[in-house]
Structure formats: C-alpha cells, structure tokens
Amino acid sequence: MKFLSSAVVMLSICIYGCGSSSTTVDDGNISDTEFAWAIRDGIPLPLEPIGNPMTEEKFQLGRHLFYDVRLSGNGTQSCASCHHQDKAFTDGLTVAIGSTGEMHPRNSQTLTNVAYNATLTWANPALITLEAQMQTPLFSEHPIEQGIDESNQNAVLQRIMDEPRYAALFDAAFPEQGSAVNFANIIAATGTFVRGLTSFNSAFDRFQMGDAQALSDSAKRGQTLFFSEDLECFHCHGGYNFTDSNVDRTIAFVERPFHNTGLYNIGGTGDFPADNQGLFEATSDPSDMGKFRAPTLRNVELTAPYMHDGSIATLEQVVDFYAAGGRNVESGPYMGDGRLNPFKDSFVNGFSINNQQKADLIEFLKSLTDNEFVTSARFSDPWN
Amino acid sequence: MQLFTCGIGRFVLVAVCLCVASSTYGHGDLNPEPGTKAEAAVSVTWRDQGVLLSNGRWQIPGVLMGGEAYPVEEGISVDEARVGVYHRSVHDVFGYLQVSSHAGGQEAELHHAFAGLDFDVGPMLATIVAGRMAAAMTPANGEHASDRLFSETPLALDAFLGRQLNDEGVRLVLSRGPLQLGLESWRGTAFPATPGEGGGSSDAYIHVRDRHGALRYHAGLWWLQADAMNRQDSRYSADGHQHGGAALVVAPEYWFDGNTEMAGAFVRLDWQWTVQTALNVDAQWLQVNTAGVLRDATRRADLDADDNGGWLQASVRHGNHQWGLRWEQLVVENELSGAAAEAMAIETQLYNQGHNPNRTSVIYRWQLHPDVAVRLEAMDDQIQSEQQQRFAVGMVWKAAL
C-alpha cells in the first residue's frame, strides 16, 4: 500500500514537475548578414553569392546603374526602362521593347523578390544567378535589349566614367580596386541592387504577422479559395513568395519546376508559338514544350498584362483562363485548344467559380500588393 | 485432431472460425473460460464546442502528431461504436475479432483480429498472440470512449501514440502470479512508426496486478521504440481515413525520418471502501525522446525532442453514481538544428515557448442500467495557448450479446 501510494506521488511529480515547454532553434547562423535586408520575421534570407556578397555600397551603385540609360549601346535604355518601380518593376507592355526598338517575345517579369527565384527569366533552367542572367539584357543580340556589344562597350564604359557621381560610388563599392569601372563590377553592383528588391509588406504580410484586420472579409474568403484543392492555385504559387520556384538559405533540395498551363496547343500537337516555346528551347525535350516558370504573385495586381507573352490583359481574365483549364484559340495561326494540350500541368484542370468567388480571389491577390515596395525611395530612381 | 497438435494449425483454425463470426468482444481482459462470447458498445456524446483548431487542424503545440488523434467536434458525435466476438477453445487457443468505428469515423473497420495460444513454460504461463491488436504496454492504450470514465482520449495518448497504438504484430507474455512480462513486435503501420524498410516498432513491459483486501491495483513499467521513415501526419490526407470534415483540410507536407523512444509508468488503484463506495486512482506518465530529421520538399532540419506527459485521475463511485476528476499535462522540449530549423519549426508547428498543454476534466457518471450509463463532463482545455471551456453530455451502452 505504501509502495503504491509512493508510486502515485512519484508519477504526479513527474507529470507536474517537468518544467516548462520550450523550442530551441540553431540555424547555424544562416541569418547572419551585413546587409540591411528589408525582410519581415518568418521569411528566410535569400542566398548571397560568395563572389558577390551584399553591401550597401554596391547596392547604391547598382541603384544608379539600374536607372541609368548610359548603360546601353545607344544610350537610350536602362534596366528601369522595362522594370518600372510603380509597376512592381514590370513595364505594363505586352512584350518588352529593346533599345533599338526590337520586340522581345516575352513579357517583362517583375523583379519583386527576384533574389528568391530558383531560376531567372521565364524558362531557362541554367540561369540561377542574377549575375549570369544580367549578361542577357546587357549583351544579347537577339533580341537586342540594352544593345551593348564589342563596337560600343568602351563608349558605354566611358560614358559611365564621365558621370562625376560614379567615381565615388565605384570607389565605395569596390574599395580595393584601383580602376573599378568595368562590366564585371557593373554586373556585380546592379545584381546587388536587384537582389535587394524585396517585398514583404503587403496586407497579406500584415495579416500573417497577426493583424487580423489587415485582410478584408472578401480577401479572407479569397485566401481560402486560393489555398483550396478545388482551385489548386497554391501548388504552383505557394510558399511565402507565392511561387514553387524558390530558393533561400534554408533550402537543402532546390527544385526548379516549370509548367505548361495550356495557353496554346497549336494544331492539337501541344505546340507553342515558334519564338516562345518555354523550357523546350533549352532542353529540346518534347514534353517540355510550353513550360514556363511560375512567377511570384506578390504585387501581381501591378504587373499586367500576364503570362509569359503578356497575352492575358487582366486578373479577371487570368482567373477565367484557369477556371477553363486552359485557353482555346479558335482562329489564326495559333489555333488550337490549349485545354487539351498533352503537356499541360496536372494542376490546371479547370474549376467552377461564381462571380462572388472570383471577386474574392482577386481581392486576395490584390492583398499581395506592397505599396511601400513600389514607392520606396530606397528603390527609386536616384537621378530624379 | 492432428491439426490441433500443431500450434500453427490451431492459429489457422481459429482464424477461420473468427472470419465467419459477425460480432465482437470488448476491450479488457480476455475471458479465460472456453466458449464464445460477444459484446457491443456505443458511446455517443454531445459537446457544446469542438476543440480549438489551428488552420483547420488539431495541433498540440510543439508535438509531431499523427495516427488517429482527431479533434472532438461540436454537436453530437459517435465517439465509438464496436461489435466483436471472442472465442476460446478447450485447447487454450483463443481469438478475437472486432469491427469498430472511432473518433467520429463514418466507416467501420476491422480494428482487432488476432489469435493466440496459452501454454505452460515451467512455472509460468506463456501466451503468444498474433494479428491486429492494440499494444498492451499500458492498459490505457487499449481503451476507447466506452471503456474509459471520460469520453475524451487522454492527451498524452493523442500526442505521443496517435491516440492508440493498434497495429499488426506479435505478443509474447510470460505470467507468474501477479507478475506479467510482455514483449511485442509491430509491423509499424501505427503511429509513431512506419511500415516497411526502416520502420517498425517494438515494446516491452512488466505489470503487476493483484489485490490486497479491499484494494485492487494494477501497476507497470514499459518501454517502446518506434522507427519511422517518410512519416507524414496522415490524419488529414485525402487518401487516408475520412474522419468527418478533416479530409478537407490541407495539411502541410513534411516528413519525419527517425526514431522514437518512449518509457512509461502507471498505477491504477481501486479501493472498495464500503459495499457501496469505491475510490479509484489512475496515474500515468510517459517520457518520449524523438530524434531524427524533419524535411519537406526542399528543406530539412534535425530534431531532438524530449517530451513528458501524463495524467492523474481520481474518482469516487457510490452505488450507480460516480464523480471523477482528471488532470493532464504535456511538457515538450524541442531542439531543431540546421539551416531550415526555424522554417521547419514553424511549418511543423513545433514552436512552443513556455506553454504546457493541459486539460482538466470533471465528470458525473450515472449507471442508469447495467448496460447503460449517462455522463456529464466539463473540460477546461488549455491545450492551445487559448483557453476553452467545453461541456459534454453523453451516453454509453455496453453489453454482452
């Protein structure tokens, strides 16, 4: 009897006297950084290239270069020509137009949180750093974007050296280099600025941080729809950056997915327009036809028109497109029913949605707009 | 007759007999007398509120959950419905078949199906059992709403055993007098293990069960180890059980690879104070160490968790009336490491800073009829950091058929 009562007492002590619950986290100092990232709690930091660590000085130099038309072959176009801050660093055009007037086959992508992109551009699995990607807009010949080539590159550098403001900026950004004005440093600095374009201050973010009033009732209903298995949106546009093509310091296994959304199905063969065939252009694998990277939906309200070729004008039409499970092009050279594209992603199955639900879904998408991001002086044109 | 001289043959025969039986036998001790008995039980409860959910899921803060630890829901629900049959031959071969529905489940399932054999080993009685059954390391693991004083499953069982460790396996029990030593080996289909390569679980226990005068007691120590590979919280998966509306919830996709070690101790006392009045005490304690890797599609973190949990329950029974109190608490200590430690802690809801999930329940139970009882319960639920008071009225019908 004494033993049993002792046992009961001991068990009571065990249950009651175990202290307080706790969770400790040792992330190996992955959050260490010397750069002032504008990133809210709960969002991991982006990767910083070993060869191009983030510094405020490079960021400021890159900001000047980003907005400088001197950084083009004919001195007429800057990075910002296709990436306007007020449009979340897109340009509002169906497709981009280069410095010589040549049309790019694709729509200018937002630079919102581009530091987190697992791949850059619409459909190139090999482009995984901003520094590598920037070679294309600066130097590509087809299509010509900023149009820098062998014939004008010295003149471009001279123009930059001739701008008085740059001497101090380059010296601060690259203090250990005597003559720092070269394309390697221009790319490093511009890449630093673009990498620093982070946007995590939307109504959705405030809601996530505990402000229950940050989202309207309509947006909350839209959020439920967005993350439902009926609409499937979140499968390709999930996570804190609303894309499944995402990398940060916490990620051990990087995924670089691409998706065919059924936008075209030329002749019923799954084909896409010849100048815009997505991942297939890089891999030549027929099953990669029409596959593109899912862009972030942050600031999507500001980035119309939509899709890789800018062929859908409004968010309402985008919702209708996904509700239909693709697009049926009924006439013209691209005729074909995209809904039946054999390479279409399994999540693009179509769904039923009424007008109220559509309005709610769009209200949620609009809650991803970060007004501070598109007005912040830190990201704005320093030449104005 | 020759078939009966072979142990395997006895198993086969009993299994065949059980397959044509259509009812079940209740939990608790298996009848040592030869013959066939059947039992059925139903527990129905109305609650004024369901438990607090997190993103539509029931998540105890700081615990990796799984198995069949479903939340109680507002309104009327069937906590348990079961029917079963038990048969024991004169040759000490026995078997048990039970079909049941638990936790608001809409579909009945074969919950128990096992066969066993008693035989002497020197001065000891040996029992070997094989099939699908509840682990016996603590009697609480084998109990459902119809068997317990309270309608809700003890918090520690929900947290650490996914409500109940019910699996396919083998049990060997050696008994001598009041002492019982048990060894069990499981396929791993039940939480916290997984089946197949890298999975499986086993446990061992020692129980003492006796009476001294008016005092009956059952006490024990036990140990369990479970291996898991690619373990997910399957409670809300669309292809898993369809319990209520739970399958509509989008569960975060993460996996656990690793090992769980659990140690437990319990004491159950039943003191028959007078002919009409008895006092009951039930104290249980579980200590759990979980070590392994948490990962999702792109991230991973190492987890080392030391958790404790248990409950104290006391009741007074006078005639057909019983009043009881149960206090339960969990203490979780999680350590996550690796680049994705923080992200995985958030995703898996392992973050718990200073909150000990706990619940206090009181009950009045009235045995209206030998087969029918009514219970009135009130719960002060602080499982989440938010507090909730919940009331319940229920009925239990339990009868030999």
UniProtKB/TrEMBL annotation, chain A:
One Pfam family here: CCP_MauG
For this UniProt record, give its keywords in alphabetical order, as a comma-separated list.
Heme, Iron, Metal-binding, Oxidoreductase, Periplasm, Signal
Which subcellular locations apply to this protein? Periplasm
The stretch of residues making up the signal peptide is none
| Entry GO CC | periplasmic space
User: InterPro entries annotated for this entry?
Assistant: Cyt_c-like_dom, Cyt_c-like_dom_sf, Cytochrome_c_Peroxidase/MauG, Di-haem_cyt_c_peroxidsae, MauG/Cytc_peroxidase, MbnH-like
Q: Which coenzyme or cofactor does it need?
A: heme
Q: Which SUPFAM superfamilies match?
A: Cytochrome c (SSF46626)
For this chain's record, the cofactor binding note is: Binds 2 heme groups.
Indicate which residues the UniProt annotation says bind heme c 1. Answer: C79, C82, H83
UniProt-annotated binding residues for heme c 2: C233, C236, H237
UniProt PTM comment:
Binds 2 heme groups per subunit.
Q: What is this protein called?
A: Di-heme enzyme
Q: Which organism is it from?
A: Ketobacter alkanivorans
TrEMBL record, chain B:
Entry keywords, A to Z: Signal
**Signal peptide start-end:** 1-28
Which SUPFAM superfamilies does the record cross-reference, listed alphabetically? Porins
**Keyword Signal annotated:** yes
Annotated protein name in UniProt: Porin
According to the entry, what is the taxonomic lineage of the organism?
A: Bacteria, Pseudomonadati, Pseudomonadota, Gammaproteobacteria, Pseudomonadales
